[in-house]
Amino acid sequence: MDELELIDRFFRPLAGEGALGLLDDAGFVSPSSDRDLVVTKDMIAEGVHFLPGDPPETVARKALRVNLSDLAAKGAKPLGYLLALAQPPHCNEPWLKAFCEGLAGDQERYRIALIGGDTIASPDRITVSITAIGTLPTGTMVHRSGAKPGDILYLSGTIGGSNAGLSLLQDRSGAELDEEDRARLVLRYREPQPRTGLAEAVRRHASAALDISDGLAGDADKLASASGVRAVIEARHVPLDPALSKLFDHGFSLEKALTGGDDYEILAAIPPGEENAFKEAAARAEIPVTAIGRVEANGDRAVILKDGEEMAFSRRSFVHGQL
Amino acid sequence: MDELELIDRFFRPLAGEGALGLLDDAGFVSPSSDRDLVVTKDMIAEGVHFLPGDPPETVARKALRVNLSDLAAKGAKPLGYLLALAQPPHCNEPWLKAFCEGLAGDQERYRIALIGGDTIASPDRITVSITAIGTLPTGTMVHRSGAKPGDILYLSGTIGGSNAGLSLLQDRSGAELDEEDRARLVLRYREPQPRTGLAEAVRRHASAALDISDGLAGDADKLASASGVRAVIEARHVPLDPALSKLFDHGFSLEKALTGGDDYEILAAIPPGEENAFKEAAARAEIPVTAIGRVEANGDRAVILKDGEEMAFSRRSFVHGQL
Q1: How far apart are CA B123 and CA B136, in angstroms?
Q2: Is residue A322 part of a domain?
Q3: What positions does the entry give for Mg(2+) 3 binding (chains A, B) (predicted)?
Q4: Closest CA to A257 of A316, A298, A211, A204
Q5: Substitution target from A41, A71, A81, A222 for chain B, most B beta carbons within 10 A
Q6: I need a surface site. Which of A221, A260, B68, B198 has the fewest CB within 10 A?
């Protein structure tokens, strides 16, 4: 199948207004005059960020959603995306069909459309690179660097589930879990749930925010470092995936939950005067948020306390190496 | 080296204003109210679009310039780009240093800055995906679909040289060439010269345009098909790389020149009333342009005439498969 036929059969149905039917050299975006664009680009590769044999729909969703998670953490609303796909022979028609169905479902769910992209041959490995574009009112992007002493640190959802899901896939452990928990953890790994619904609340009320993609400890370090503050987190307040307690006697640990990757939750620094409004906005969006710590002056990293002592980790961030 | 160190040492020096020091989840673009953004995304992979062992600077330039070529063909001025890099172990510090030097030189040359991106581990193959963003006055993007009967078809520069350069690299042919010609052809393959300087002339005077990346015949088909016209090209008017004549008795052919890839010249349809202004603007930009044919009503493909007969090709477009 040549590239034109590929576009015709699989990608044109995904094309939005600025895509020009994917029949031009480039797409376009015509932003209104009172908006900034937020742009982010994440790449995922077979055998690194997803497993060979993972369902194509989930590969599509993961590729798109890790980018939507970045947009949400910056307070931006999704607008459009560009897709580059490196296709080895096993990325065949059934694979592509399912991959594009995964994208189509997410386009509807997150109200975003394809603007452009590229497909190339690959001798071996599937690689997907997505650039997502979001919009927000001029000058309102939420940075990592705005946290102020006195701010309260809020975390959306729960963490640790995704990394546990990866462990289940890799070593087939988790016999102590029932089928429902197993399936849910695997899905957390395969299909991040970007907190798009929280973007508006973050934009209106947070002084700083980022998405937790490489582990809470390391990502909290990044927020602290960018803001020139100390982030103090109480481990007992950090909401963990409810299934994790069943795994703690079986190789999984609190440390893994706090330093594992792929959570795609939002960590936000909320000034005390904005706390109630933030919590109310999150409740309206039906996204649970939990106060897990506070911002203190003078520092450049996060401290995670357990029983009053700072926890020490062998590594603070998850590094995506070969699976 | 972890990702933070990698950013710090190699990529931060490339970061423009909207990149936030590459220390945030996303970059931003704040377009002025009277401009549209043009976005394009091309991916290149080791062993497909460039050869293992190609100098890292040229890989960087090729990755960026194929995107700049798209922007130029749409009439857009470069603004910024995002970079995703899949790094296998042989993409080591000296490689990265040279790669980023290649980008730095081109950023100055084309006045474009890095806005954001991603680096990931790759077990084997270097893959580079770049998304380039350009700007132009609202509503003035030049499409492929605007060619009208009576328009004259203009081509920038010469074609065939890049494909001949690839042949030289692959089969070490070309003994009949002197060193200077050999080096120039190889450079044409490795380092496209996007016609950024022609963008303004294209935007002001062309009814349709595209960049020639997969061969003149197949790309002229695309312009004709998108515009619903017949593109009639006279082979004798098509400017070929001057070294090609020396290769025509040695395996290279006119067909290869007309259907080979990686030319990155611009094909533009110019209404007769705009011809002089277009040629003058091209001359001011010091970019040679040549009238190679005309647009006729009723059609959906290009016809390339040689001695009054339509040329037949075994394939009309270059397909980037494994090198």
Answers
A1: 40
A2: no
A3: 25, 70, 211
A4: A316
A5: A41
A6: A221
